Amino acid sequence: MRNLQALQTAGRQLCWLPLSSIHPNSRQPRTDFDEFALMELAASIRQNGLLQPVTVRPAAEGYELIMGERRCRACRLLGHTHIEAFVLPADDQESALLALVENVQRKNLHFFEEAEALSRLCGQGMAQDTLARMLGMEEPPRRMESYDISNTGKDDMVASMVVYVDGRPLKRDYRRFKIKDLDGPNDYASMDQVLRRRFRRMLDGDEKFADAPDLLLIDGGLEHVRVARRVVEDMGLDIPAFGMVKDDRHRTRAIRAENEEIAIRSSQSVFRLITAIQDETHRYAISFSRKKHRKTGFASVLTGVPGIGEQRAAKLLKHFKSMAAVKAADEETLSAAPGMTRPAAEALYRYLHPADDEPAEQGRRDAWHCVR
Length: 372
Fold this sequence. Notes:
Elements: E1 6-9, E2 12-18, E3 22-24, H1 35-48, E4 54-59, E5 62-67, H2 69-77, E6 82-87, H3 94-105, H4 111-121, H5 127-135, E7 143-150, E8 158-165, E9 168-169, E10 175-178, H6 187-203, E11 215-219, H7 222-234, E12 241-246, E13 252-256, E14 261-263, H8 268-302, H9 310-320, H10 323-328, H11 331-335, H12 342-352, H13 362-371
Parallel strand pairs: 3-5, 4-6, 7-11, 11-12
Antiparallel strand pairs: 1-2, 2-6, 4-5, 7-8, 8-9, 8-10, 12-13, 13-14
Helix pairs in contact: 1-2, 6-7, 8-9, 8-13
């Protein structure tokens, strides 16, 4: 444990205080704890140290806790005797804002997000500030867009666009793209197409793509970065683009620039942010790819039934949502579905429920197992 010390940081006193002298805000006490999140936080503190200082202010019997109650309790679970804290003056006007933010967010805020929120409020170096210095940017990137390509074959190539604003995901701005007019899987051509479509829609005034990013992050290496930078330049834009590189175990390792790899493990906040962005972008692309693949498999099974073409199969998918629901439906339910006729419903039911003495086609069984 470091010796007790006090530093002047952004007008606030930063010091190590005995945990026994820190008490919850008696006027706004916490009524419940997410015990799973608390234990997860304790494990993180044990491994990495305290993510961010807590915020306290002088009180009659010691120090009153304004923000970071969960981290304070996690440190107690680990047997810590002292904790790093910002000490605010008793009449500091900002303490009211801190208390308000904590009371609004205390029940649902994930501990990493809590650390970033405290970092922003207390004026400490945000992950975006450190990232900007690493990448040689003049200003921290407020809006970051990340892209990934996923494919399971020629007909199932998709891309994801994930957006982070102020270090947090902005899910309403997420977008998905179906890759068009390519002869086969090609990551570079796919990335070129997706970025051109995205920025063309922005330049054409599409409100869904109106906000320009401050930074592009591409899941991939040097060639992906070159594709992104060429698209940006061709379209007359000035947006820095970098790659996100993984190691042999598919874990985030570094950021790829034009001439070098930039190590990010020296900054835990940057490493966590880039890892979260890369994982979220990949998750979003994969989920879209799987959904599209299930729809394709669903249609291929149904169009093998006499009287059911692609349009009727699409209507069945929209109505029943899954192949399991179609299989569970009786003939009456099938015939009542949009676009269905009685003969088509009977044919489909017989196809999905062959009689015991009727040999089932192996292809039918294989298709059913692929999509259910």
